[in-house]
Amino acid sequence: VNKAGGLIYHRTFVKDVKLFDDNTYLRVASTFHGMHAIARQLSPTKGSSGLSSGQADTFSMHCFQTLTGTKFFVVADLHARDGESLLENVYEVFVDYALKNPFYEARDADPLRALRHQPRRHHCRVQLQGTLMKIVVVAVVP
Amino acid sequence: GSLLLSLVRAVTMIFDLYIYNRRGVCLYYKAWNADRKHKNEGETQRLMYGMLFQMRQFVRSISPRADTKTFTSYKTDKYSLHFMETTSGFMFVMNTDPAARDVADVMRHIYAEIFVEYVIRNPLYEPQTPIDYSLFKDNLDDYVSSLSIFRS
């Protein structure tokens, strides 16, 4: 999510989960952006980062934030352990295909439009233990 | 021998505890190891409640499943927040170091053996008011201290 809560990309990997409409994803991204920051404010100790992971009774979620503030967020099942490293791999893919793409316009309303014409060869080299359910990529608009 | 054993033991760092009623009133707050001073305690407690409320809703809305009821914890690089809501609507929040385990059991113990025992069952306690009983506070401190030293 960027400063205005802009959602860049989302993709669902598992077939039999409930799907949402685009507006819901936008709301989710901006809500998460807020909570990520509040988690730092609520820290009982000095120098905390924002939210890095969360657990519910039925699933887990993980967040990876880059130095520029881009957040990568994944929803996975309860037993997923290496959510953070999976997200780092997603970030590498994003950098390779999006940020280094001369047609990629970060300021566009639909920034990944240029990607649609590219051949998609995303390989996630890390095995996420458990099932990956949904991935939401949120990126900063400079 | 015993040196190896002492290296294997884990220290649980418990930072602080919040207890809210179902209306979001903070009935009790205690810090044991929190080294970050919040300028306005009341404001922090309200912000915390807002965060809990939002997190609960968030988790329900993004859940891939229909039976998700609540969130249980979240982490940052420096702390882990654990959340428990009782059937009677009280909310317990405990901040620990990120590696702490079995904190749900700790909160359940605090609720059932200390909070219920010394607050709810106290005939003088007026519901929904802040807690200020030394029996409650001392028992809580004793229990938390016993967890914060080396445990095997």
Largest interface: A-B, 36 and 37 residues
Largest sheet of chain B: 5 strands, antiparallel
Based on Cα principal axes, name the global outline of chain B: globular
User: Could you spell the SSE succession of chain B in H and E letters?
Assistant: HEEHEEEHH
The beta-strand count of chain B equals 5
Explain what the structure shows.
The complex is a heterodimer of chains A (142) and B (152). Chain A has helices at residues 22-41, 83-99; strands at residues 7-12, 53-56, 60-65, 71-76, 132-138. Chain A has 142 residues and is α+β, with helices and mostly antiparallel strands. Chain B is of the alpha+beta class. Chain B is built from four helices and five strands. Chain B has helices at residues 2-8, 41-62, 103-120, 134-148; strands at residues 14-20, 26-31, 71-75, 80-85, 91-96. The longest helix of chain B is centred in the middle third of the chain and has 22 residues, at 41-62. The radius of gyration of chain B is 17 Å and the shape is globular. Chain B starts with a helix and ends with a helix. Classes of the chains: A alpha+beta (142), B alpha+beta (152). Chain A binds chain B through residues 14, 17-18, 24, 27-28, 31-32, 34-35, 38-59, 61, 75, 133-134, and chain B through 15-16, 31, 33-36, 44, 47-48, 50-51, 54-55, 58-59, 61-79, 81, 95.
Key terms:
heterodimer; A: 142 residues; alpha+beta; 2 helices; disordered N terminus; disordered C terminus; B: five-stranded antiparallel β-sheet; 4 helices; 20% strand
Task: Spell out the blueprint of helices and strands.
The complex is a heterodimer of chains A (142) and B (152).
Chain A: E1 7-12, H1 22-41, E2 53-56, E3 60-65, E4 71-76, H2 83-99, E5 132-138
Antiparallel strand pairs in A: 1-5, 2-3, 3-4, 4-5
Chain B: H1 2-8, E1 14-20, E2 26-31, H2 41-62, E3 71-75, E4 80-85, E5 91-96, H3 103-120, H4 134-148
Antiparallel strand pairs in B: 1-2, 1-5, 3-4, 4-5
Helix pairs in contact in B: 3-4
